[in-house]
Amino acid sequence: MPKITTDFSGTETTAVMVSRLRAISSYWFGSTATAAVTTWGALRSLMNGASTPAMTVAATELGASFLIKRSWLNDPDQVIPATIFAGRQGIWLDPSDFGSMFQDVAGAVPVTAVGQSVALIRDKSGRGNHATQATASRRPVLTRRPKTGQRNILPRNQWDAVPIGVLAADYRDRGQYLGGPLPASGIAAELVGKGVTDGISWVDIRYSGTNTAGSPQFRNIGSDLAQKVPVGATRVSYSHWVQVVGGSLSSGVSTYQFLNGRDASLAPVLGAGALFTPTATWQRYSAADLAVPANMAEATAYGMYVRFSAGATFDVTLRIGGGQVEYGSTVTALQNAASIYDLTEPGVQDCYGLMFDGVDDVLQTGNIAWGTDEVTVTAGLRKLSDAARGMVAELGPLANQRNFQLNAPSSGLNDYGFLSSGSATAVSTTAVAAPNTSVVTGQAKITTDTLILRRNAAQTGTSAADQGAGSAYDTNPLYIGMRAGTSLPFSGILFGLTAVNALLGGPQLAMMEHATNANTGGF
Amino acid sequence: MPRVTIACPAALRADANQLARCIGLGPDDDQTYGAAAWRDAAGNAYAVASALVGEGFVSVATASLGAPAWGCDLAAARRAQGCIRLGGAADPTALVAVLSDAPDAALAELGVTLPPGDADL
C-alpha cells in the first residue's frame, strides 16, 4: 500500500491544513465521503465516525492525532518508536514480526513458523533491550489465534497427518483421536482417504463387519479439549461436517451422534438433537445449546461417535471433518486447529503471540537503566489459567524494591493486576476470569503515588496508596513470564509487550493500546 | 513437536540437569530444573520442566548416553537416566515424564501444584 504524506511548515491557515488533511483522508475514506469536509469539526467527525480502530480525539489534538493514527496504521514499525520512545527508555516486543524472533540466542536461526520455540525476540523500540532464554526447555512457543478470539476448544481438527490404511489401534495426534477396533467386536475400521474441501480437512473412514458384542459399540471421532471450562460456562455446542461416501447408515444398525461428556461408567451421554443420520451430501451437523456436563473439565475425548447396534452387520464409509466444540448456545463459523499453537479462521486476521506454559517459560532482558520513576506498560494477553498468580512482566528480581509488575492473575486470582513499588507497594486489580483475551495497561509514578490499571483501552482502577521512597525504578532486567525466572509462572499467550519510562497520555497512550490490540483482538 | 513435562525431585535436580545438558541443545540446558517450587499431595518438593521435544525424545532420553560437544557429567546423567519413568504421579525417587500438549493436563497427571502465591509484593 503506498503512503500518502503531507508536510506542514507551521504557518498554514486552518483552511489549508484542513484541505491537506482532507486530501489524505480522501485516500482512506473515499473522495465522496470527504468532499464536504472543510472545517476541523467536520474532519474530526469523519475521523471519529469512520476510523478503524475508533479513537476519539479532542479538537486541540486533531492534527497530531490524525497524523499519528493514520501513520501507525500504515507503518507502525516506523511511527511507534519515533513517537513513544524518542528520548525515552523502554522496550517493544512484537511477536507478529517474524523478523524479530530467533530460535537461538545468537540470532542465527530465525523463527519461521508457528510452533517453534523462541530463544530471542528483538526489541523494536530502538533501545536494544532484547529478550532471551538460553535454556531450551524454558522458551515460549510462537502461537497463532484468530483476532476474533478462540471459540473452537479442540486442540486439533486437521487430518492431513493421519496414516491411510487399517486402523489397528487407537489413533492419537496432538490431542486428536480416532477409536480403533475392539478385538472381540468384529468391527473393522480403515482410513481410505483424506483431503480438504472448502478449507475443511477431512478423512474417509470405512467401518465394516458384524458387531459380535452383546451391546452397542461406539467409535469415537473426537479430541481432547484445548482449554479448561471457562468460569460460568453453562452451555456447549458441537458441530461436525459429515458425508456418507459409501454404504449407508440406518437406524437400528448404525447411527451417528454427538457426545456430550460421559456418565459415571464412561458411557457417552447424548443431548437433545444430538442423534442424526448423515446423508450423501457434505454438510455440517450440530448439537447446539447442550448443558455443560459435570465432567467436561476432564481430559477425556469429546466429539462424535458412530454407534453400531448389537448384532448389526454394516459396511459404511464416512467422510468426516471440521469438528468444533465451543462454549455457548450457538454454533459459529469453523475455526481450524492444527495444534494448540495454531488456530485460524478463514477470513479473519491472524494474531501471533508467545505461549508461556505456566511451568517454567521465561524471557529476560539485560539490565535496563530505567532512569525515571514513571512507567507505562501495555501487554496484549490471552490468560489461560487462574490457578496461581502469574507474572507477565516485572522489572527486577524482587518486588517492593523500586520495581513494577504486571500480573495475570494477581494473588487474588481471577483478575489482572498492576503493581508499583518505591519502598512500599501499590496495587490495582480488575476482575476477569480465564480464559480471557485483553490488552492490559499499567501506569505508575512513584513520587506522586500514581497507579492506574486499564483494560481494553478503558481505565478500570487506580490506587493512591503510598509507594514509598524512590526517585527512579532500579536498574534491572525485565523478566517476562516469571518472577526472576524462578517463580510465579504465567500461563497464557503474550501478543505484544510495550513499556516506556513515562506516563503516557492522550494520543500516545491510545496509539500504544490500539497498536497492541491490532495483534491481540482484546477489543 | 510433542511436549513433555517432567517432575524432578529436589534430590535429583543436579543429576537431572546433567542429563538435560547431555541430551539437550547446549550447555545452558543444565539450567532446565530450577527451584523445587512444586509440591505433591504429600508435600514432596519438585522442580518441574515443560518443553517441546523431538518426536524421538523418549528413545533419545533412554538410549545409551554419550558426552555432547559442550561436555557434561556423564555419570550424573546416567544416574538420572536410570530414574526416568513415563507417566503417572510424581515420585520422590523418580524423574516422571508426562507426554501431553497441554501442560496443565500434565501437571494434573503428575499431581503437583504450586503452593499459594506470594502476597502482592
C-alpha Rg of chain A (nearest Å): 27 Å
Q: In one word, what is the shape of chain A?
A: elongated
Instruction: Characterize the quaternary organization of these chains.
Output: heterodimer
Largest sheet of chain B: 5 strands, mixed
Low-confidence stretches of chain A: 27-33, 49-65
Please tell me the overall pLDDT of chain B. Answer: 93
Q: Look at the helices and sheets of chain A and give the structural class.
A: mainly beta
Q: How many beta strands in the DSSP annotation of chain B?
A: 5
Radius of gyration from the alpha-carbon trace of chain B, in angstroms: 14 Å
Structural commentary:
The complex is a heterodimer of chains A (523) and B (121). Chain A is mainly β and 523 residues long. Chain A has 3 domains: 74 residues, no CATH class; 239 residues, Sandwich (Jelly Rolls); 176 residues, Jelly Rolls (Sandwich). Chain A is built from 6 helices and 31 strands. With 121 residues, chain B is α+β, with helices and mostly antiparallel strands. Chain B has 4 helices and 5 strands; from the N terminus they run βαββααββα. The longest helix of chain B is centred in the first third of the chain and has 11 residues. Chain B starts with a strand and ends in an 11-residue tail after the last helix. The chains are: A mainly beta (523), B alpha+beta (121). Chains A and B meet through strand 25 of A and strand 3 and helix 4 of B.
